[in-house]
């Protein structure tokens, strides 16, 4: 299969996909006893978690509890960290993510990543979106322009930037830059979006705009998001997972549907964290 044929055609923005089952279907991504070690430091140990398709899963807990390490395992960004070792099993549909036979580039197209600090390429707005398409074999100019307009519309940026697509992306506001980075991930038609505190570097107004965007992507994409903002997790997540530090190692304490997590926590640490006693 050629690179070009491997890239799905984006769903037109005007076409509303039928809602996918959330928190009721079989796991879309599942991890079994996943552990992460950086050299001699055990950062995360024995995390088993199921992610349903089409929902938003929030990973919460104190700094250093392994949330970002877990997130970056899911599309093998941990491969880029020297002396990082990941063990256990991660399944994405029928893909064994940690298998040495799994091709990383197609995996990262299917599982996109949004970082805490907006990181647009030092290019124009247009080229930020055209670049990944060309890297995956899309060369036709008209097709690229259609992809760009549809994706910028999807993240609410088209009307804001349509007359300055050739201006530097880094001249955009922080919130606009983050939406552009989300668009850059979406333009490759991923199935999963990994988000590492996507609102924490933004002012409250921009944070609200990005949060609304994330909520609008529910059902069309499966979203796994690290956040330290419990109120945000309560507002937008379908499922919440609490990570904690035991000794010097991060571990998963509890996972529940959002309403149950906040109203009927099963673990004393969860209750104390929600009440502000711990963390």
Concise synopsis of the structure shown:
The protein is an alpha/beta fold and 279 residues long. 33% of the residues lie in helices and 25% in strands. It has helices at 3-6, 67-73, 104-110, 125-135, 141-154, 158-161, 174-186, 204-216, 230-236, 258-263, 268-274, and strands at 27-38, 41-52, 56-60, 84-92, 95-96, 111-114, 192-196, 222-226, 239-246, 249-257.
Please describe the structure with a list of short key phrases separated by commas or semicolons.
279 residues; alpha/beta; 6-stranded mixed β-sheet; 4-stranded antiparallel β-sheet; globular; disordered N terminus
Explain this structure to me?
- With 279 residues, the chain is an alpha/beta fold.
- It has helices at 3-6, 67-73, 104-110, 125-135, 141-154, 158-161, 174-186, 204-216, 230-236, 258-263, 268-274; strands at 27-38, 41-52, 56-60, 84-92, 95-96, 111-114, 192-196, 222-226, 239-246, 249-257.
- The chain has a six-stranded mixed β-sheet with strand order 6-7-8-3-9-10, sandwiched between helices. The protein has a four-stranded antiparallel β-sheet with strand order 2-1-4-5, with helices on one face.
- Helix 4 (125-135) crosses helix 5, helix 4 runs parallel beside helix 7 (174-186) and helix 7 (174-186) packs parallel to helix 8 (204-216).
């Amino acid at each position: 299969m050629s690179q070009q044929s491997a890239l799905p055609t984006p769903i037109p923005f005007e076409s509303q996909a039928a809602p996918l089952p959330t928190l009721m279907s079989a796991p879309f991504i599942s991890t079994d006893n996943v552990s992460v070690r950086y050299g001699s430091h055990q950062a995360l140990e024995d995390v088993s978690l199921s992610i349903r398709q089409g929902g938003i899963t929030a990973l919460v807990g104190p700094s250093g509890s392994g949330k970002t390490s877990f997130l970056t395992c899911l599309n093998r960004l941990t491969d880029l960290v020297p002396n990082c070792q990941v063990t256990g099993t991660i399944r994405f549909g029928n893909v064994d993510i940690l298998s040495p036979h799994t091709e990383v580039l197609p995996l990262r197209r299917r599982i996109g990543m949004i970082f805490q600090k907006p990181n647009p390429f030092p290019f124009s707005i247009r080229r930020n979106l055209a670049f990944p398409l060309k890297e995956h074999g899309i060369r036709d100019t008209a097709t690229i322009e259609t992809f760009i307009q549809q994706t910028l519309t999807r993240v609410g940026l088209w009307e804001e930037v349509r007359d300055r697509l050739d201006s530097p992306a880094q001249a955009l506001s922080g919130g606009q830059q983050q939406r552009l980075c989300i668009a850059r991930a979406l333009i490759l038609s991923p199935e999963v979006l990994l988000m590492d505190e996507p609102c924490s570097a933004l002012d409250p107004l921009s944070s609200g705009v990005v949060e609304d965007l994330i909520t609008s992507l529910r059902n069309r994409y499966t979203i796994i998001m690290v956040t330290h903002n419990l109120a945000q997790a309560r507002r937008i997540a379908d499922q919440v997972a609490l990570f904690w530090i035991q000794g010097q190692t991060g571990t998963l304490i509890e996972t529940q549907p959002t309403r149950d997590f906040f109203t009927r926590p099963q673990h004393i640490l969860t209750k104390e964290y929600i009440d502000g006693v711990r963390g």
